[in-house]
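JOB MANIFEST
job_type = single_chain_structure
chain_count = 1
residues = 234
[input]
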Amino acid sequence: MRPALLGDAATPAAKNSSVAVAKFAQALGQMAFILVGLIFVLLGRLDVLAGRELAWSVCGTVLAIAFIGSALFVLTSSRSWSERLWRRSPRVGALREQMRGYLRRHPGRFMASTVCFMLGYAWGGLEVLLICWCMGLRLSPLEALAVEVFSNLVDSMTFFVPAKVGTQEAGKTAIFKLLGYRASLGLSFGLIRHTREVLWACLGFALYALSARQAAPPPPGRSLLRPRPLARAD
C-alpha cells in the first residue's frame, strides 16, 4: 500500500526498497526504545517486574534486534551463499540490490532514521502524561515511560491483531494494574488512546481522499477553463 501511495515518483524497485528500509529502521527503533526503556525502568526501582520477567523481556528484545540485524546483513552481504538466495526471483533481486546499494552508501542516514523512530516512540511518554493529566491522574515521568515501554512491548507481540481490537484496552489495564493503579484507570486510558488513534487514522484517510480527488483528471467532455463570452458585433 505504501509504495502505491508514492505514485510515479520512482521505479517500483526503488519504491519498494524505500518502504522496506523504513520498516527495518522503524522495527529497530522500536526494539531499541523498549530495551533502553526497560533499563531505565529497572534503574528507577519501580519494582514492576521480577528478575525472571525482566530477564525474559530483555532477552526477547535483544534477540529481536539481533534478528533484524542479521536480516540486514543478509540483505547487504555480497557473499556467494547470500547471492544465491536472490537469483531465483528477478523482482526480489532488484529490490534487494536497491536496498543493498542504499544501506552501503548511506549507513549514517539509516542510523539517523532509526534514532528518529526511537525518539518518536519515546515521545509517546508525553502523550501518556497528557492523557493521565486530563483524567486527573498524576503519573511521574518514570511511570509514564514504563507505560509507554510496556505498551510497545504488548503491541509488538500482538501486531497481528487488526486495529489492536481488544489488545489496546487489555494491555493498558494490565500495565496500570502492574504499576499499582486501579484496573479501571488502565481501561479508561486504553479507550481514550484507542479513540485518538482511530480519529488520527480517519483524518489521514480523509486528507488522502481529498488530495486524490483534487489530483484526479476532470471527466471527459468538461473543461477546467471557464468559457469566454462571445464578442459582440457592435
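[summary]
The radius of gyration is 24 Å.
The CA atoms of residues 96 and 167 lie 34 Å apart.
exit_status = 0
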